[in-house]
Specification:
Elements lengths: L1 H13 L21 E8 L9 E8 L12 E8 L11 E3 L2 E3 L2 H6 L5 E3 L2 E3 L10 E2 L5 E7 L24 E3 L5 E7 L7 E3 L5 E2 L3 E3 L6 E3 L5 E2 L3 E4 L10 E2 L6 E5 L6 H13 L5 E5 L22 H4 E3 L9 E4 L5 H10 L4 E3 L5 H5 L10 E7 L6 E3 L35 E6 L8 E6 L6 E6 L2
Parallel strand pairs: 4-6, 5-7, 6-9, 7-9, 8-10, 9-11, 10-12, 11-13, 11-14, 12-15, 13-16, 14-17, 16-18, 17-19, 19-20, 24-28
Antiparallel strand pairs: 1-2, 2-3, 21-22, 22-28, 23-28, 24-25, 24-26, 26-27
């Protein structure tokens, strides 16, 4: 009886939906669910993907048109490309690469290095042009603006030296190391920009008035020498310079550089441990420089506070000055005395005192305060501590070293003044003295006597 009642109840519930041909009543079909669609598009390099990639959009096709419309997008994500791998040797030019025209610049855009010299020397029919090589990371040879070669070896060489026009700009944004830099043709590039350059494995030579801008802000070292001569530069920053007997620092005849400021630069380089030769003179007149009739001396610093730089000799950093101008003995004394009371040409109290100069410079050649007051007179010190007497010794009879060089003093000028110098730049203890005419020109070495 209960089963019958349940059956009747079910039949009553489904009767409203009708009966199929099979005599069975059915619940209506819910229909096919809408499709889930995706859409992809290239993604440019940017904030979503540093190196670019693919944008992926996901959503439900609500209107059933088979297209993922903007209003149907429910999720967006990105599949990013990996950082590109660059082989610095993948595009290297072997030989001397000559850039002589805009077409050469375009052809060299992919080069990452040059095994040889990079010569920027325009063709005879080319006016001034800019040289931008953004991918160039190293030059094994020299970056230069001169070439003296003809055509040979399949590489391009100008038949004659052709200067770069004055307005040429050289920009090598990725260059990190170069064998050397020598810009010295009749018309060098006006602007040289090397923002990534960290090292020059050779010399830096800038020698032309057309050079008005040299930018290498992260340059840390030059292995041999720096020579900045006759440029139009208005400012100069010096990196560390290599410490070899052949190293030198020369800053001369630059009309826009203040000579006193260049003395200060040189002093900082010396105090940093540079032992090479230093030459600073005849740069443009500026604060503290001479002025007047237009002679060479007018553009040379006259302020001894700049010309005579403090140096450390024998552990003493307060009582010694090295002056970066060459002059006769009398002028050298006057320059030292102008530093202040107690200053004069340097005196030595022992052989060891003399030999300490070899730790300051490889080839120290200075006027020191030892001289003959008149012909055939004995040599005396212009100043010396009263309680310390020092009789300079010769090679003939040294007891603890030799003050005089072999054969000196020989009285060749009579009277004579005395210079110190080294006979072996590799040996810091090889500093000796030589008598010479007092009107010769050497740099003064000054010492303070308390």
């Amino acid at each position: 009886m209960k089963l019958f009642c349940l059956s009747a109840l079910l039949c009553g519930l489904v009767a409203c939906s009708g009966s199929g041909d099979d005599g069975v009543d059915h619940i209506p079909d819910a229909g096919t669910p809408p499709d889930v669609l995706t859409k992809t598009a290239p993604e440019a390099a940017g904030s979503n993907c540093q190196y670019g990639g693919t944008e992926v959009q996901v959503g439900v096709d609500q209107n059933g048109n088979g297209i993922l419309d903007a209003g149907e997008v429910q999720s967006t994500f990105y599949i990013c490309d990996q950082a590109p791998t660059t082989d610095p040797l993948a595009s290297v030019y072997y030989g001397e690469l000559v850039i002589g025209s805009p077409a050469d610049v375009a052809a060299a855009q992919s080069y990452t290095g040059v095994i040889g010299d990079l010569i920027i020397s325009p063709d005879s029919d080319v006016s001034s042009f800019d040289v931008e090589l953004p991918n160039l990371m190293f030059v094994a040879g020299t970056l230069t603006d001169c070439s003296f070669f003809g055509n040979q070896g399949g590489a391009k060489f100008p038949a004659t030296t052709k200067p770069v026009p004055p307005s040429t700009t050289v920009s090598l944004a990725a260059l990190q190391v170069v064998g050397g830099v020598e810009l010295e043709c009749a018309d060098s590039p006006e602007t040289i920009s090397l923002p990534a350059l960290t090292g020059i494995h050779g010399a830096l030579l800038l020698d032309n008035a057309n050079i008005v801008a040299w930018s290498a802000p992260v340059l840390a070292s030059v292995e041999t020498s720096i020579d900045v001569t006759n440029t139009g530069l208005t400012a100069l920053k010096l990196p560390a310079i290599g410490n070899s007997p052949q190293s030198s620092l020369t800053i001369t005849d630059n009309a826009q550089l203040d000579d006193c400021a260049m003395d200060d630069l040189a002093g900082a380089v010396r105090r940093g441990g540079f032992r090479g030769q230093i030459t600073i003179n005849e740069n443009g007149a500026g604060l503290g420089s001479g002025s007047g009739s237009g002679s060479d001396e007018d553009t040379t610093c006259t302020d001894v506070a700049h010309v005579c730089q403090a140096v450390t000799i024998g552990g003493d950093a307060a009582d010694w000055r090295e002056c970066y101008q060459s002059m006769d003995f009398g002028s050298a004394r006057a320059m030292c005395q102008a530093i202040g009371t107690g200053w004069d040409l340097a005196y030595f109290t022992s052989i060891a005192d003399e030999e300490t100069l070899g730790a300051l410079a490889y080839s120290p050649t200075y006027w020191i305060g030892y001289y003959q007051a008149e012909a055939s007179a004995p040599y005396t010190w212009v100043q010396a501590p009263a309680n310390q007497t020092f009789a300079p010794q010769s090679f003939m009879d040294p007891t603890d070293g030799a003050f005089w060089n072999n054969g000196e003093p020989n009285g060749d000028a009579n009277p004579d003044c005395v210079q110190s110098f080294t006979y072996d730049g590799l040996d810091p203890n090889s500093v000796v003295a030589n008598d010479t005419a007092c009107d010769n020109a050497y740099m003064p070495l000054c010492r303070y006597l308390p």
